Amino acid sequence: MSSSANTKVKTDLPKSKAAALIEILGISAKLGITSFGGPIAHLGYFREEYVVRRKWLDERAYADLVALGQFLPGPASSQVGIGIGVIRGGLLGGLIAWLGFTLPSVIALVVFAYAMQGFGLGEAGWIHGLKLVAVAVVAHAVLGMGRQLAPDRPRATLAIVTAAVCLLWQTVMTQVLLIAAAALLGAWRYRDGNTAEPYRLQIPVSRTAGMFCLMLFAVLLLGLPILRQLSDNLGVAIFDSFYRAGSLVFGGGHVVLPLLEREMVPLGWISKEEFLAGYGAAQAIPGPMFTFASYAGTIAGGLTGGVAATIAIFLPAFLLIVGALPFWNVLRTHPRMQGALAGMNAAVVGILLAALYDPIWTTAVLSHEDFAVVAVLFGMLVFWKLPALYVVAVGAVMGAILQLFTG
């Protein structure tokens, strides 16, 4: 298996800023088209592309960024992608990384809102094949991150305990509480500085800019409901509802969707049937599930509503990750914080391990044939070291073939 831990991180940028941004856009768009399986699977795809293949950051820095995304409300995988874009190309790089990863599913769901409600896409064999790809990708990520981030008995134990608690105690706040507990345990266990010095990330965002983003996040969260009360404009109401959803939800798309249902259906913005149709479509396409907002906003207020809802639900993620990164980068190099991060990273491995089983394995591997496909795809990643794009294509074809022969 490829390992970034034993390879120097590539800090060299393309010769021009434009070339760097085009590179970020191309890679993130490829991920936006091929990353099926939900937020945990996305983190596996990101690791394979940005850590193993591109070496833009090392295993530990990536895990630190994932831990930060797990702490913050909103879509964790999108925040990690934005963070990598910021590290690589500044604020504009973060914006372009978000656009590349998000735009394919936004377009698909807006089109679906207008024209695709009766196609039964979720039953297609190739869709099931893509779910099997997600199993292989996440298993590959767990294996690689486990070797690097839980290499000794204490951290491996912490990862296993975290996975067990995640599966036994399935609440919205479980992951956040487990990471916090792992941080305290790691700070105590490695309080003498026994962990290696982390690679220092170059964050092209000042603390002043970071503080401004955090303040703007709070001002919008408190001010939009007031503006909504003072205005009868549907666009303002949509923006407020989706911004609040993106600001206050931990746990990703599967958690935010029920919240949006309670917010939208009683107001008559969307019917129960339309909501369920969009829910199915959001799970059948690649990219972040938060792009369900594009579908729901389009149903409620046309294309303008779709654009407003999309911007509103992702804006908190952008403001929070950009606001936190300058301070996070300083903290993660502090001797005491290194111990806390060692514990947090082991907990992240445990969270990924739990998610590998539920919901990824339980919703994808339904037969002996499914397991056989997963084994082939896993071998393609781990032993043959093929790019994820090839694995996605093979998985889709094998899923379609399985449907033909098994009905």
UniProtKB/TrEMBL annotation:
- Output a single Gene Ontology CC term carried by this record: plasma membrane
Q: Where is the protein found, in the record's own terms?
A: Cell membrane
Q: What kind of membrane protein is this, topologically?
A: Multi-pass membrane protein
- Transmembrane residues, as ranges? 91-114, 126-146, 158-188, 208-230, 242-260, 299-328, 340-360, 372-405
Record GO terms (molecular function) = chromate transmembrane transporter activity
Principal subcellular localization: membrane
Q: Which family does it belong to?
A: Belongs to the chromate ion transporter (CHR) (TC 2.A.51) family.
Instruction: Name the chain's protein.
Output: Chromate transporter chromate ion transporter (CHR) family protein
Q: Which organism is it from?
A: Paenibacillus naphthalenovorans
Classification of source organism: Bacteria, Bacillati, Bacillota, Bacilli, Bacillales
